């Protein structure tokens, strides 16, 4: 159990650069999600908001159980579950983003919140869980799977068909679609275009998903958008790394999580795809790319393969690149659902060297299950959301935190 540093010392607002790797000993004062899965985490001031598909949560000591419909909140400093924040979200939550004025944006696959129409995207008050008036994004035709807020804009991705196809920039106050942002993912590898993950810096938006074009330009499953000008445009950045197929019948599109480094200079993409022996395909891997490289033939700076197990989530903190899924190994390019030469055991969670991509000594372990679906790095450590109950060899049901030592 982690006891040397208390969570009461935490003052956290947004993720930023870590200068060291987090402890392998999870913090004690985090609550537990008693069923389902955690898909998303956001930090609003000193409040952690957790979203997914679940119905009950318990305090850290498991003495009190709270009914919660797919979203809840707790104090980062103490782990106390917020009693007043208990909105009823009528379906799975897949994405969260911190809002101004003690609010949070909630995206997912739901028709209503608190019995009021709020299809796929809503803005909620942390004070009482109510819908924030005036925010009417008019999302339709599908779900919201990923969100990022930058200043007065909220970027949303998913498989929705309105107000744009799969990708939209919305006014953070009204939810209205920005008419200057018209970039459309196209020619999907699945029946519908879908953005799985996105991350934004001051002037770049990185997106991945089941598309093969952005605004008609070839961008197989991954693209970079210049958002530093009044009218965003597709950047002169293209990679063919995700053009080859993995197991196409099972994973026609295989990119999953991505995260920008704290300074925005690079990003890391993680994938599923199945045990494919060719190292020319980035199936079941983590790969680093340089954000500002200008080329139509961008190649990864490094790649780390699991050898046949999916990765779903990634967090780049400066000191490490954390990856999570249901992997058994890293550094395993020649594995095929097996430990190949040089494979390093890393159950469910791992830390990689940002410069080389090689696995770091950090090895807390995590019950594998489906896998890690959410990371959130912040001033005091790393929050982890998944579908299992063992983290760092302790009981931490579906949500936990590794503090900075």
Automatic annotation (TrEMBL):
Keywords: Signal. Residues 1-24 form the signal peptide. The keyword Signal applies. This is PKD domain containing protein. It comes from Nonomuraea typhae.
């Amino acid at each position: 159990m982690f006891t040397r540093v208390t969570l009461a010392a935490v003052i956290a607002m947004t993720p930023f650069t870590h200068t060291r790797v987090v402890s392998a000993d999870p913090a004690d004062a985090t609550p537990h999600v008693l069923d389902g899965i955690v898909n998303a985490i956001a930090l609003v001031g000193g409040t952690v908001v957790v979203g997914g598909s679940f119905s009950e949560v318990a305090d850290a000591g498991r003495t009190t159980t709270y009914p919660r419909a797919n979203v809840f909140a707790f104090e980062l400093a103490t782990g106390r579950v917020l009693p007043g924040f208990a909105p009823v979200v009528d379906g799975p939550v897949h994405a969260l983003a911190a809002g101004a004025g003690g609010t949070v944006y909630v995206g997912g696959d739901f028709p209503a919140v608190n019995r009021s129409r709020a299809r796929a995207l809503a803005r909620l008050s942390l004070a009482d869980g109510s819908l924030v008036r005036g925010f009417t994004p008019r999302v339709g035709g599908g779900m919201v799977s990923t969100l990022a807020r930058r200043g007065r804009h909220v970027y949303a991705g998913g498989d929705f068909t309105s107000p744009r196809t799969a990708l939209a920039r919305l006014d953070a106050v009204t939810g209205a679609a920005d008419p200057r942002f018209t970039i459309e993912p196209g020619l999907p590898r699945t029946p519908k275009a879908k953005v799985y993950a996105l991350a934004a810096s001051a002037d770049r938006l990185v997106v991945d998903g089941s598309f093969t074009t952005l605004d008609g330009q070839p961008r197989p499953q991954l693209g970079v958008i210049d958002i530093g000008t009044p009218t965003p445009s597709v950047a002169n950045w293209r990679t063919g790394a995700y053009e080859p197929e993995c197991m196409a019948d099972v994973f026609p599109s295989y990119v999953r999580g991505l995260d920008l480094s704290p300074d925005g200079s690079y990003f890391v993409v993680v994938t599923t795809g199945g045990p494919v022996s060719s190292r020319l395909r980035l199936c079941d891997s983590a790969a680093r790319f340089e954000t500002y490289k200008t080329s139509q033939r961008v190649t990864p700076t490094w790649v780390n393969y699991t050898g046949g197990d999916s990765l779903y989530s990634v967090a780049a903190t400066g000191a490490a690149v954390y990856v999570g899924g249901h992997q058994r190994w890293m550094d395993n390019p020649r594995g095929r659902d097996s430990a190949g030469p040089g494979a390093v055991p890393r159950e469910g969670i791992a830390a990689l060297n940002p410069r080389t991509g090689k696995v770091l000594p950090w090895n807390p372990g995590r019950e594998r299950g489906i896998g890690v679906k959410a990371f959130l790095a912040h001033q005091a450590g790393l929050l982890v959301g998944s579908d299992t109950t063992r983290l760092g060899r302790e009981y931490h049901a579906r949500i936990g935190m590794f503090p900075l030592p």
